[in-house]
Amino acid sequence: MSSPNRESVEKTSVFPVGSAGRRELRRALVRSTDPAGTIQAFQQSHSLHSMMAKAFGTTPRYKARDESDSNVESLDTDSVMLFLSHLGVTQYDVHKRISDTLLKELEDEIRNAQSQEPLLELLKSSWAYATKFPDSELRPVVLAVLKKLGEETPLAVLTALAERDEGKLRHAEIFHHLSPLLKRLVWEADWNQRIPLEPDTEPKAYLEQVKSSLLFETIEPLTEQYYSSKLLVESANRPFVASIRERRMLTTQRRASTSAIPTTGAATGGVGSVLRGSQQQSTTTTESHSSGKAVLQLRDLLCDSVGSSSSYRPKLLYAILSILIAQHGANEKFFLGGAEHLHCTLVADLLLSTGGPLPKAYTYVLMLARIL
Length: 372
What we know:
Elements: H1 4-12, H2 18-31, H3 35-45, H4 48-55, H5 78-86, H6 91-111, H7 116-132, H8 139-149, H9 155-161, E1 164-165, E2 168-169, H10 172-175, H11 180-194, H12 203-211, H13 214-227, H14 230-236, H15 251-254, H16 278-302, E3 303-306, E4 309-312, H17 314-330, H18 342-352, H19 363-371
Antiparallel strand pairs: 1-2, 3-4
Helix pairs in contact: 6-8, 7-8, 9-11, 12-17, 13-16, 17-18, 18-19
């Protein structure tokens, strides 16, 4: 006969976890002829779901043959949550763990999707909820779908992402987390919607249309940084110079990346006799660095990069040149020019600083920029 104490231990040992669970799995594998099947059966029989069924004396649904059996577990999770609360696990922790796991699995499914139809259906069903509630758990889902769609993102979605309310982006939380490619697609969609292909208005009226675009709001701080470069302004406002060299405002450096801009005085030889002394040379390099950084940032915004090479997106290149031309056309005409015409200098810097070939339509404009 077995002792009462042994029977009591056998009845209470229904949760073999930790070292006890490892010992039980090891014994099962020793006796098994199908290790893979044994591990799968062990995972199912020792899951939290099965343990809860053992604890409350119910039969899991995957084991029940007859749904009318009164002992089959219900979908009510109150008893399970109460049991977990006794173990110090809050309902928030349970729900957070489940939602995080489901979200990760869903994002993996999105990345591995081979067809656009289910992605578009998922985007359609989650868009309204994700954009209405700032803390929505569906927002990462929308971002994952948009990243997967890439160039195939519907035009209606791109246009909606560019919508503004009182000068602010309506869906800024989503837009700011988009990849650079998707942001460029949003700028292009917004430009096509707001700006006519062949403007038939006065220069100042066309400039107001241009200013309403999201692209203009994005690049305006960078263009203002370029136009406010002290060295550029002083050179442009100098009507007469002793030599052409004084007009060459470190153009090579201004169109290069900021990391390539020299910091030594020897790099300022292209300025000629305008500045002398180490202090003046340091000022020259700093000002060139400021304008060169603006050109670099504009190029990074407008270019698609593939490996070590980059090239302007044709639509965005057309848009930014239209912005600069509109600003130039709306200015008062001065015979001797001046800093008000730095838009033209910026056009040349953008055309000559590209890391890849320009569209064929810009061949002659590129030749003119090189000559100037």
